[in-house]
Write a structure and sequence with these properties.
The chain is built from 17 helices and no strands. Helix 1 packs antiparallel against helix 2, helix 2 runs parallel beside helix 4 and helix 3 packs antiparallel against helix 8. Helix content is about 70%, strand content about 0%. The protein has about 325 residues and is mostly helical.
């Protein structure tokens, strides 16, 4: 089968146009019907379609192309299926409470999702493009290929299993408000994020073999290495935009102000690495300097009650707790 030349020979333009059209289609449904359930589904399945289309267009089906394409399809399909299942169970997505009825703020999220999908897909997109496939390819099974497959397996298991562990933990009534510290969450507070990062670097590691072993000349060589933007973009996104920054300090602030298992949460954060899996027995006594550097627990994630808490909410909560204790004591005395 001959390769398809579509707009450019790296498939950058065609994948961008497909992504924009795909996301705008689902945005029109979500905004018109005020329907949250398709948002993450649209993101995950977009990866699947880009991989299928670029692999079909390439006309060359080397083992490495098939493996990388299947890996990103497997990841995207699992992620979208799980998030669709979860949103059906919960009913709505709280992220859009202040955007759902506002056209441009809501559209802004979808535009960002377009950028996310297109950028993270770059290693597979370029690997499948005519400017790479027209050259001879190293046989699949290089050191980079093996390392990438192992990393993908580790990341995929960690992300998928931790998603299930957290969902099952939170589904139990007796765990309402408690800190999820089971399974992979014993070693890291965000095993799903860590797994997702590992997955994308694994796919990049496999995809880069044609250039790493000098089968591909410039400028295709440079284009392949430039696709490291994909996993780096995802890492920066999870660490500084939509992941840890929204989970860590805001989550701790909410727990502290409401008194929702704050003591157990504080103990959990002291003994558990924020991202990189590490035994809690070894992590807890580590110097703060190492936690803030090597283990990536940067100051922007750290919650200080004196600096970040709304003390008026704390006083109201403490007053209510005092009244409740007084009423409980009075009831016990009367009985």
């Amino acid at each position: 089968m001959a390769e398809v030349h579509a707009l450019d020979d790296y498939y950058l333009a065609i994948t961008l146009l497909i992504t924009i059209a795909y996301q705008l289609f689902f945005f029109s449904i979500a905004f018109s019907l005020k329907f949250d359930k398709l948002t993450d589904f649209a993101g995950g399945t977009n990866f699947v379609w880009l991989a299928i289309i670029t692999l079909s267009f390439s006309g060359h089906h080397h083992a490495r192309q098939i493996v990388c394409s299947l890996f990103i399809m497997l990841w995207g399909a699992r992620l979208s299926a799980f998030l669709l299942f979860r949103i059906i169970k919960t009913g709505k997505d709280d992220r859009f409470d202040d955007k759902r009825d506002k056209f441009f703020p809501f559209l802004g999220f979808w535009v960002f999702q377009m950028i996310w999908v297109w950028t993270v897909s770059l290693p597979v997109t370029v690997l499948n493009s005519p400017n790479v496939t027209k050259y001879d390819q190293p046989a699949f099974g290089t050191g980079r290929d093996i390392a990438g497959v192992v990393l993908f397996a580790v990341g995929f298991v960690m992300e998928s299993v931790s998603d299930v562990q957290k969902y099952r933990f939170r589904s139990r009534v007796e765990n309402k408000g408690k800190v999820c510290d089971v399974g992979f969450f014993t070693w890291t507070r965000h095993p799903n994020y860590f797994g997702e990062i590992i997955i994308q670097f694994a796919i990049f590691t496999i995809s880069i073999s044609p250039s790493a072993y000098n089968y591909v000349p410039k400028p295709s060589y440079s284009a392949q290495y430039a696709t490291i933007l994909g996993p780096f973009f995802l890492t920066l996104l999870l660490m500084f935009v939509s992941g840890l920054t929204l989970q860590e300090r805001p989550g701790a602030k909410k727990r502290y102000e409401s008194g929702n298992h704050w003591e157990s949460f504080e103990r959990y954060t002291k003994r558990t690495s924020i991202l990189i899996p590490f035994p809690p027995q070894l992590y807890e006594p580590l110097p703060t300097f190492l936690k803030r550097t090597i283990f990536l627990e940067f100051p922007i994630y750290v919650f200080d009650p004196a600096k970040h808490a709304d003390q008026s909410k704390v006083r109201v909560r403490e007053a209510e707790e005092g009244n409740n204790r007084a009423q409980d004591g009075l009831a016990e005395g009367q009985s």
